[in-house]
Amino acid sequence: MENFKNYINGQWVAPQSGKYFDNINPADISDIIGKFPESGQADVNAAVAAAKEAFKKWKNMPAPKRGDLIRKAGDIFARRKDEIARIMTREMGKPVFETKGDIQEAIDTAYYAASETRRLFGFNAPSELTAKMNMSFRTPIGVVGVITAFNFPVAVPSWKILPALAAGNTVVYKPSKDVPYAGVLFAEVMEEAGFPAGVFNVVLGKGYMGNMLVEHPDVKVIGFTGSTSVGVKLGEICGKLNKRISLEMGGKNPQIVMPDANMDLAIDGVLWGAFGTTGQRCTATSRLILHKDIYDEFIENLAEKAKKLRLGNGLDPETQVGPVIHQAQLDTCIQYTEIATNEGARLVCGGKRATEGDLAKGYFYEPTIFADVTVNMRLFQEEVFGPVLAVAKADSFEHAIELANSIEYGLSSSIYTKNVNDAFRAMNLLEAGITYINAPTIGAEAHMPFGGVKGTGNGHREGGWTVFDIFTEWKTVYVDFSDTLQRAQIDNY
User: Fold this and answer.
1) Is there a contact between 22 and 206 (Cβ–Cβ < 8 Å)?
2) DSSP 224
C-alpha cells in the first residue's frame, strides 16, 4: 500500500504527524487506493511559509511569463488526460467520460488563464486637473488558500488555482479528503510544468484542516467550494479577520418545462441534469417544474428512461451512473427518500440502494423520482446532493417562475420553451446566477462567469474575466507633472 505525500516548497514530504488515512473506491469499498497524509497545523504552517516566501519573486515575474507556465500545465493535463481520468474515476466514482470532461475543463481553464495574463487590463481616466494623469491597475494579494469539494477533483480547483497564479499570487491547496489523489496529480502536473518552489503547494488531510488554512494570518484570500453550512462558517471567520473569501456553495436548481417545448429534448436534459455525476453537482437539476398540461405524460416518459440508466463502476464504458461518494451520502439519499414519502410525495421510481451483483460492493443508489412535490416539502427546499429528483406542477408560466424562485438557493436554472418571449422573461425573472434556455442546469464554460445568488454564494464569480476580481486588488496612481501644487477635492470652481 503506497503512502502518498504532501507537496510543499517544491518537495514531496510526509506529514509531520506521521498519520495517514485510507482512500476508498466508492464503487468497490474493498479497493483501497492508498494511504494519504492526515496533515495538521505544522504542515499547513510549512506550506503557507513556503508560499509567502515564494510570493516575493512570483509577483514580480512578468504576467505573460507566468502564463507560459500555466499554458504548459494545460499541455500536461492534455497529455495525461486518459490516465488521470481513470484514477479520478476510481477515486470518486463518476464514469470515465465524465472525468475526462472534468480534466478538459482544467485544460480549457489553463489556456484561458494563460491568455488572460496578457489582458490583465487596468483603466486610465482623464484628470480634473491640468498636467495630471490618472491610472489604475491590478496587483496580486499574496497567499491564497483553496478548499474544494470532491465532485470535480480537477476542474473546480483549476478555476481557482490557475487564475490566482496568473494574477501573481501563490497558492496552498487543500483538496477534499475524499479525493486526495487528485490533489497529488494536480501537484505532479504543476511540478512538471516548472512552477518555482513554493508557488503551488498541496496539503492533504481531513475537514478540520480547512479552518487551519482559513485562520492562518499569512493567508490573505480564501477560495472555497462546498456546502452552504460550511461556507457560512468560513465566511464568519474571514469576516472577523477582515479576510477576502469567495464562497461557492449549494444549489437546488430548477428545470421548467412548458407545453410548447421539445419534449424529447427536455427529458434528455433532465436525465443528464439530475443524474449526471450521480446528482452530485452544485448545479444538478434537483427540481423539475412541469406545466400542468404535460405533467402526467412527461413524468411517465421520464421515469421509463430513468429506470433504464445503467449503474456501475465508472471504469466500465457501459456505465451511465456511478456511486455516491461515501456511506454518509448514501445515508442522506435514504433519509430524504423517507422524508419525502412521509411528507406525501409520490415515489415514481427508484428510492432504494442498488445491490444487484457488483453494485453491492459500492455506494450505489437508484435514480429516484418523486412527483407531486409541493413547495413546503423539504425535498423541494433542501439540497440532497444525490440522484433524487423532485417534480412539482405549475399552473402557468408565472407560477413556474414563482416555484423556481421560492427557495434559499440561486445557482443555476433552466427553462425549455420555443416561445421567445417566455425565454427572455425567464432570463430576467429567474433568481439565479446562471440560466439555460433549452438545456439542463449543468455545463459551465471556462470563459464565462460562474456563481450564484442568495444562499449559493457571496457575490464573487469564478470563471471568465470576473475571477480576477477575487484574486487581485486595485491600485490607483496619480501622476502630477504640472510642477505646481494642485489640490484635488477642493472647490476649484
Assistant:
1) no
2) E
Q: Kindly state the percentage of the chain with pLDDT values over 90.
A: 98
In our burial notation (b when 16+ CB lie closer than 10 A, e otherwise), range 287-326 reads: bbbbbeebbeebbeebbebbeeeebbbbbbeebbbbbbbb
Q: pTM for this one?
A: 0.97
> Mean pLDDT, the chain, as a whole number?
97
pLDDT in tens, 320-345: 999 999 999 999 999 999 999 999 99
Instruction: Identify the active-site residue in 238, 282, 333, 349.
Output: 282
The amino acid at 21 = F
Q: What are phi and psi of 201, to 5 degrees?
A: -135, 145
Distance of CA 191 to CAs 64, 188, 448, Å? 19, 5, 28
Identify whether 282 is a catalytic site residue.
yes
For the CA atoms of 47, 48, 49, 51, the dihedral, rounded to the nearest 10 degrees, stands at 90
| Domains of the chain by start residue, with CATH | 6-249+457-476 (3.40.605.10), 253-437 (3.40.309.10)
Residue 207: predicted pLDDT: 87
What pLDDT sits at residue 492? Answer: 66
CA 377 to chain centre: 27
8 Å CB contact between 252 and 227: no
What is the C-alpha to C-alpha distance for residues 323 and 437, in angstroms, rounded to an integer? 29
Residue 238 annotated among the catalytic residues of the structure: no
Output the CA–CA distances (angstroms, integers) from residue 132 to 136, 475, 476, 488, in the order listed.
Answer: 14, 17, 13, 11
- What pLDDT is stored for residue 291 in this prediction? 98
Catalytic residue among 98, 105, 116, 248: 248
- Are residues 456 and 250 in contact, defined by beta-carbon separation less than 8 angstroms? yes
Q: What is the dihedral of CA 224, 225, 226, 231, to 10 degrees?
A: 30
